[in-house]
Every structure is written in C-alpha cells, then in structure tokens.
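Repro:
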Amino acid sequence: MDPMALLAGLIGIGFGSLNAADSYLLPSISPLFSSAVITTGVAAILWRFGEQLNTPQYFQIGAIVLASATLGGAILQWLAQLIVQWRAGMGTLKLRFKLTPGVIDVFKVMIPATLSSGMLYVNLNVDQFFVSGIDGAAAGLQNATFIFITPLGIISNAILVPFYPVFSRLAAPENWRELKDRIRQGIFLGALSMLPFTAIFMSLSLPIIRLAFERGQFSSDNAQFVASLLVVYGFGMFFYMGRDVLIRVFYALGDGETPFKISIINIFINAILDYFLVDAFGAPGLVMATVGVNITSMVIFIWILHRRLNGLPLLRWSKGIAGLTVATILGGLASYGVSQGMENIIGNGNLFLLLLELSVSSGVAMIIFVLVAMQLKLPELDMLNSRIRQKLGR
C-alpha cells in the first residue's frame, strides 16, 4: 500500500483542480469508485473461502486482497479524475517555482490545515491509551466506525466539495451577507442529510450490527457491544458534518490558524473527557468524548464567525435545527416501535427477516422525518428535493 502516499496527493490535486474548473460531480462521487473496488474484492474472497477466512492460515491472503483492493480503488479514483481533467484542458503539467502572492496565500492556509489534520492522529493515540484496557474495544470501535463513516463520508463529500469554492468567492466583506446564507445552507443541508441517519442508527443499532457482522466468530454479545457504540456515533453525526462545514468557512476566509489552534485545544478536551467518560461508561464513553469535542468545536467556530462576520442569525437558525431535532426524535421513536413490533410478530431469526425489519423500520424513520421537516418550510429542504429529482431524472 506504499503507493497510496503518492496517490493521495495526486487525488487531492485532482479534487482542487476540478473544483477550480467548476466541476463538482466527479470529486463528490469519486470515492465511490474506491469503495466499489474494495467491496468487490472483499465479496470475492468471501465467496471463494467463506468462513475459512477466520482461520489463521488465511489471515495473510485476506490482508493481501484487502490491501490490493484499496490500492486498486485509489488508482481507479485517480484515473477517473485524470480523464475529466484532460477534457477540461488540464492534461499537461507545468512546473513553476515562483512564489506569487496567490501561492503564498495558499501556503498560509495549507500549512495550518495540514497541522490540524495531524492533530487527529494525536487524538487517536490519546483514545487508544484510554481504551487499551477494555477487552475487544478496539475491534468494536473499528466495526462501529465502519458503519457510521459510510454515509457520513459519502454525503459529506457531496456537500463539502461544492461549498468550499462558493465560500471562497464570498470571502470579501461586501459579500458577507450572501456568505451567511451559504453557511446556513451548508449547515442545514448537513442536518437534513445526517439527522435521518441519527434516527436510524440510534433506534436500529442492534439489527444493523447483526445484519452487518453477526456471523462466524462474531457473537450476539459482540453485536450488543458494537451496537452501543453505534448509538453514540449516530447521535454525533450532525456535529461531525457541521464542524467540517464551518472549518471550510475559515479556510475560505484565508484563516487556517483558528482551526489549528482549536484542534490543539481539542487534544486536551478530548483527554479530559476520555478520562471521565471511559471510566463511567467504558468504550461508549470514548465515542461520547469524541462527540463532545466536535460539539465544543462547532460552538466555538460559530461564536468566532458570529463576531467576525458582524453577526449571524443564530436565533432563526436555532429554531430550524430544533424543529429538525424534533423530526429526528419522532422518526427514531416510530422506527424503534415498528422494529420491535416486527420482531414480536414475525421475528428476525434469519437474514431475510432481519433485512425486512431494517428496510421497513428505516423507511418509517425517513418518512416521519421528512413529513415533520416539511412543516418547517425550510428552503434547504426544497433545494435538496430538487437536486434529488434532477439526479433521478437523469
């Protein structure tokens, strides 16, 4: 997987160049190419060896296939970008070493942003220190993260990639009124996209984990443990998205230092929360700490932007978010009720019944959420609806 280091840089350059050329679709969906290759590779080896993969003699071949699929997916993602770049007239490279004012401005943002990203790994090491004494916690966190990061990663790319250049074009003070509207759009589109998953993950965590992992050596006790982690991850999905939207606003304003400073503060907050919450709740406390850090970051970012942009309509935004929170609670309760009812009536003792329970219950959560959200008359809901219809119409 060593070539991934080079490919990551090339893919990142592709993201930036295509955004600069006002091409947003491919950067938003290109991670799907990598995911598709990995899924195909894992499915193929499972079909070929089945439960034998759980035995030590097959560990190495499983790791090789997974690593190869990850590398192949990255290559495919890069090649897909190259084709679009070539068609957009960016098929040649011109090496320049002249530090123009524009390049210097980029470095002023890029260097703190790179360091901020590095702080994530510091937090990860802090988390590993606190969780190391809990049996099976590391594997459980990995499984829960896999479930929660799938919709978060796909949807965050679809939202964050188009919004960053929009924020950048509105960075001048005379455009701040429209910038505030765009910030609202980013936050509310994130809420409309993430909160339905919050309702589903918190109400259906156990059947989701059972469907995804409960086979072979993964027991029902393991499913209960991972489900408890997924509940907390589900609660924090909107805060992950909201924080990332606000960070892009700072970068668009040419300020990479503020997110960097806050990321350093977050290390200490994370360590303190880990100490108390892991002791009180075990492994779920670790996820609670991470969610707490994201909430704290989001509040600080909003407060700073509120002062820097001469005021944000926070009260009006809060009313909308509160309404969507009610929609999430009602959707989650309805979903949980339908799930429990189906378990009592038809059971979920096999894969088909479990899939049926999840499909119906998730559908109920989505329907209730949308019906309640429609009463709020949010312009972002109309925007999201029109975009979905455009995609389906194609």
